[in-house]
Amino acid sequence: MHRRPAPAAVAVTAATLLTASACLASTPGQARDPLAEPVSTGPGTEAGAAGLTAAQARSALITEADLGAPWVPSEGAATWRDGLLKATTTAAPDCRRLLEALYTEEPLGRPSGSLAVSALDDGDDQAQLRYQVAAHRPADVDRALAWLRTLPGTCGQFLATTTRSGVEAVQVEELPLPAVGDARQGLRVTVTGESDMNGQAPVLTLEVAAVRVADEAIVLTDGALGAVPPDDSTRRALELGAQRLAEIRDRARAQA
């Protein structure tokens, strides 16, 4: 786990990234803003083969009531999102694909059915947690999980270029996950930007987790400047979320 910067350093970094994100132009293929709404749902109305209904997917979400203070409903995209995640690379194609997946927050690709999303902010740590429940074809999820599993080897360390904020160093490591769902994979991604005039380099740490539960999948992204909050929010959200999703699926099958 990376050491969290001192509060003064975080404040300077946050201000720097807020300015940077305000002036960045869109990158082709990365224009969609998945955090435009804190909670959203996609298509899908019939349970069973088509997956959960939109209402059932919403009921499987993790909220601030589950994680407790200081998590609160998000007010929008984190200031560091455009500043450090809108980037490209000349490294291996898998590394470029990873950057796109991190920015669009779709490491499993587009859902095949219902989608529900919640986003939470931790203002104390400049952190944001985004939690998705979506219908995916199991074979597609398993292929995506297998791809994610290769990334610490193929993209362990590489350089990326942001739209206007210079070059950043990206490190990709495996993130151990609790034994939940039918299949799972986690990554810890650390992005270090260029130093500013005060010699301070912005550091973003992302915990990315994907879990398949039968025909649905959970995707969680927990990110913060410096280190993610030391409250095990990723683990707690996955354990509770996978159990809740399985229970909702069981009820849906019983009512079908």
Helical fraction equals 25-40%
The helix count comes to 7
> Biggest sheet: strands, sense, closure?
10 strands, antiparallel
Shape: globular
What string, H for helix and E for strand, traces the elements in order? HEHHEHEHEEHEEEEEH
Structural class by helix and strand composition? alpha+beta
Beta content: 25-35%
Low-pLDDT stretches are: 1-50
Mean pLDDT: 82
Q: Compute the CA-based radius of gyration.
A: 18 Å
Query: Count of DSSP E strands?
Result: 10
Calculate the terminal CA-CA distance, rounded to whole Å.
Answer: 45 Å
Compact summary:
With 256 residues, the chain is an alpha+beta fold.
List the helices and strands and how they pair.
Elements: H1 7-23, E1 40-41, H2 54-59, H3 64-67, E2 71-73, H4 79-85, E3 87-88, H5 93-104, E4 115-122, E5 127-135, H6 138-154, E6 157-162, E7 167-174, E8 183-192, E9 203-213, E10 216-225, H7 233-255
Give a verbal description of the structure.
Helices cover 34% and strands 27% of the residues. Strand 7 and strand 8 form a beta hairpin. The protein contains 7 helices and 10 strands. The termini are far apart. Helix 1 packs across helix 4. By secondary structure, the chain is of the alpha+beta class. The radius of gyration is 18 Å and the shape is globular. Strands 1, 2, 3, 4, 5, 6, 7, 8, 9 and 10 form a 10-stranded antiparallel sheet that branches.
